[in-house]
Design a protein that fits this description.
The protein has about 600 residues and is of the alpha+beta class. The protein is built from 25 helices and 16 strands.
Length: about 600
């Protein structure tokens, strides 16, 4: 877990940055006592529960529990790693970072993959707009109505009809086949270990993240081969179930408009931007997921689904409403007339008609209900098919966290179908119970509590952060080798070092914590509600005693194994020593446990 950036550099950037000014670029803050409050950017809410503490330079949302320092905020809102957030804030503060502090070669695999993808995207683009081999693809795109400026803006490219053009180009740049394969640019033959270019004779749409980094590629065939569209495989950078095409170009417009228009294809999104609709993003040939909605929720208050008018497109729109219901993001559906797709509609009717179509979009649940009932048999048919159609609608309503919203949807469904609200509510309750049982089964293993030792170590970190006067006790009485959790051990050691240097606070500890897995632990502690205890030192001592007792019990179990092994092998001298060691460990553990029980007073546990 080596840190790449010196603490001095991090301190300079942190001290030069005001968290309030950074947060205000995303959240409208109002004065509230000694702090500031606003609507949380990480979950949808109507009553502000997001708080910023200017004195401690930290933030906390009491609704969703997210909290941390200014680096945490930038990392979560912009999807950056710690080093990238540091560089961003350093540039804002006009602090020059030494080149070695953020040399991509020092950042590991992801930085190398970003670099490879950027090179590949540029290679594909030059092949389209500069080389004769790309002329047929260029003519096709211009014939589809795209301009050369748009092709350059989105860095659209062409992959030659070759098995190894990219592999050879990569070799000349120093990229071996292994890194090209990890980036999803090469595939491996099923019959042999031979590697070959994944994209051949295809138009290439580079896929960027919100920070304008190439994370993957979408490719459209030119010769009628299947599949028509081929995406990058899952890589450390790319997951199509979480990625939205054109989010890099749409980001500013999404924040300004506070709404997103979602289309199904690359061409639909690109054509919308060319016509001036810059708040359009696209899904990548997959169902719209909760992860997609979570990305959008950072930028907008509502979304409009603009899928193809055919049955497949409208069915996809209906299914997508589930994700919005569970994430509490408002959604509407716009139906394109005359069987056109968004690309064709824009070219034939223009941006004004497009804007009117979006303005007339229908509420998502109303659309889903109408479609479900239209697909069901008539009212004169047996009731089971209608009940099944309504189950599809009520299953979506069941995912809504807000009971008031659920009640409103039941009322609307009752009015539209002529059924009683009571009957629909009873069925809704059954579906919600079924969903809850499914959720509990799915999370039974992942939700298991951590071992007692690790819980105690996390609790010790909590008391150190909330009551800094206890740090000296930890430093003087705790042997680091007694700790079971490596993350807790590192954070406790850093907290002790900070205390020796002067002071310790949540922002101080976070500034010394660059590793992703460690920041997750530290941020959870920063976001933890205050724990009120009458005697913090006694609480700290109790935790220390518990940690020591568990370590002694572990030693006793180890000695027990030695005893068993020694007995089997028949070595009396070794057996005597092992028995004495085990008894000593047990007595000391019992003494620690006894001390814990005698002195323990009621405290509020985290």
């Amino acid at each position: 877990m080596a840190r790449l950036i010196s603490d001095d550099i991090v301190d300079r950037v942190r001290q030069a940055t005001d968290i309030v000014s950074i947060v205000r670029e995303t959240v409208q803050l109002k004065k509230a006592g000694a702090g500031m409050t606003g609507l949380c950017p990480f979950h949808r809410e109507k009553t502000p529960s997001f708080h910023v503490n200017p004195e401690k330079q930290i933030f906390k949302c009491f609704g969703c529990g997210v909290g941390g320092d200014v680096f945490t905020f930038v990392m979560k809102t912009d999807g950056l790693g710690f080093g990238e957030a540091l560089r961003h804030l350093a540039e804002r503060a006009n602090i020059q970072l030494p080149h070695r502090e953020y040399d991509p070669a020092e950042k590991g695999e992801k930085a190398r993959l970003y670099e490879v993808n950027a090179w590949a995207a540029e290679s594909f683009h030059r092949c389209l707009v500069e080389r004769p081999i790309g002329k047929a693809a260029l003519d096709y795109l211009l014939g589809r109505g795209l301009t050369l400026d748009t092709l350059k803006l989105f860095r659209i490219g062409y992959a030659p009809d070759s098995w190894d053009a990219l592999a050879k180009g990569g070799a000349r740049k120093g990229y071996d086949e292994e890194v090209l394969t990890r980036a999803g640019l090469l595939s491996v033959s099923d019959q042999s270990d031979r590697r070959y270019d994944r994209f051949r004779n295809r138009i290439i749409f580079p896929i960027y993240d919100a920070q304008d980094r190439v994370i993957g590629f979408g490719a459209r065939c030119l010769d009628g081969s299947e599949p028509k569209y081929l995406n990058s495989p899952e890589t450390p950078l790319f997951s199509k179930g979480r990625t939205l095409y054109a989010i890099d170009r749409a980001r500013t417009a999404l924040r300004e408009e506070r709404k997103a228009i979602i289309v199904e294809g690359y061409m639909d999104a690109v054509m919308a931007h060319q016509h001036g609709a810059r708040h359009v993003v696209g899904v990548l040939g997959t169902a719209l997921s909760r992860d997609h909605v979570r990305v959008l929720r950072r930028f907008v208050d509502e979304a409009i689904l603009l899928f193809d008018a055919d049955n497949a497109g409208q069915s996809a729109a209906s299914r997508s409403i589930d994700a919005f219901a569970s994430e509490e993001l408002a959604v509407r559906v716009a139906v394109i007339p005359d069987g056109l797709d968004p690309d064709e509609f824009l070219q034939q009717r223009g941006i004004e008609s497009f804007d009117a179509l979006i303005a007339a979009a229908e509420d998502g649940m109303t659309f889903k209900l109408k479609r479900a009932m239209a697909d069901a048999p008539s009212a004169t048919a047996p009731g089971a098919p209608v009940a099944r159609a309504l189950d599809d609608v009520l299953a979506t309503v069941a995912q809504m966290p807000n009971p008031v919203a659920r009640a409103q949807e039941v009322r609307k469904a009752a009015a539209a179908t002529g059924l009683s609200e009571r009957a629909l509510s009873e069925r809704l309750d059954v579906l919600r119970a079924q969903q809850e049982r499914t959720r509990l089964r799915a999370t039974a293993v992942s939700d298991e509590a951590p071992p007692p030792g690790r819980r105690a170590e996390t609790e010790l970190l909590l008391v150190m952060l909330q009551y800094p006067e206890t740090v000296s006790m930890v430093r003087d009485h705790l042997r680091p080798d007694l700790l079971e959790d490596p993350s807790a051990r590192l954070l406790i050691e850093r907290a002790c070092a900070l205390s020796e240097a002067g002071s310790i606070g949540p922002a101080d500890l976070l500034a010394r914590t660059q590793e992703e897995e460690l920041r997750a632990v530290a941020e959870a502690l920063v976001a933890h509600p205050p724990v009120a205890v009458e005697h913090p030192a006694r609480w700290c001592r109790e935790i220390l005693n518990g940690i020591e007792a568990r370590a002694l019990e572990r030693r006793s179990r180890e000695m027990q194994r030695v005893v068993a092994t020694t007995t089997t092998q028949g070595a009396p001298a070794d057996l005597d020593g092992a028995l004495h060691a085990r008894l000593a460990s047990l007595r000391e553990a019992q003494r620690k446990r006894g001390t814990l029980e005698r002195k323990k007073e009621p405290v509020t546990q985290p």
